[in-house]
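Data card: per-record layout.
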Amino acid sequence: MEVKDTNTRAYADYLIRHQKSFRAKILQIPYRAHLKWLALGRTLDVGCGAGRNLRALSAGSLGIDHNTLLTEACKQFGLQAMTTEEWISKKEQFSSGFDSILFSHVAEHMTVAEFEKLLQGFLFALRPQGRVVVICPQEAGYASDSTHVEFMDEAKISGVLEGLGLKPQAAYSFPLPRAFGRHFRQNETVVVGRNQTTPFLVHDKI
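The structure for this 206-residue chain is written out next.
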């Protein structure tokens, strides 16, 4: 794909067309099963695209994307989605409102510093002890998309999570071992971090 900007009609058309293909629907089966296995609860899906992952997430989950055409596509599928501008105007109502925040194939579209800033801006919406899940393509997948900016491996992702006070809980390659990442475009690096904030305990009597 030669599209250079994810906030364009060309990119939206590409994602929507690709998602509708029979091959993509078959390939997505194990990835959706993986998200269900993670049991993320109510999830904020940042960079939700055309809703590929939203379909596998729990009721009440919300997608955000800066491409208006993609959020409209999500709504047409019956999914909850907002543009970045809509989120900014309403975000106060979502403080500590999500069990998990998902960044799937988002971080590689920016530098490490930009991703850290992006993630930091969403942490207020994560409940105490909630999880942040970051999923990025490995070498073959990274090379397949001209909108990718920086390759994100386990070390970089974990470094961002730890730098923001999140405790990395798991890091693994999916669906195949890491060695397949140079050849299999759909192989991904998955890193899970836990919000270590402790909720306040309110006692009527001490």
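Known properties of this structure: The mean pLDDT is 91. The helical segments are 9-20, 22-38, 68-76, 84-90, 112-120, 139-143, 154-163.

See the next section for split statistics.
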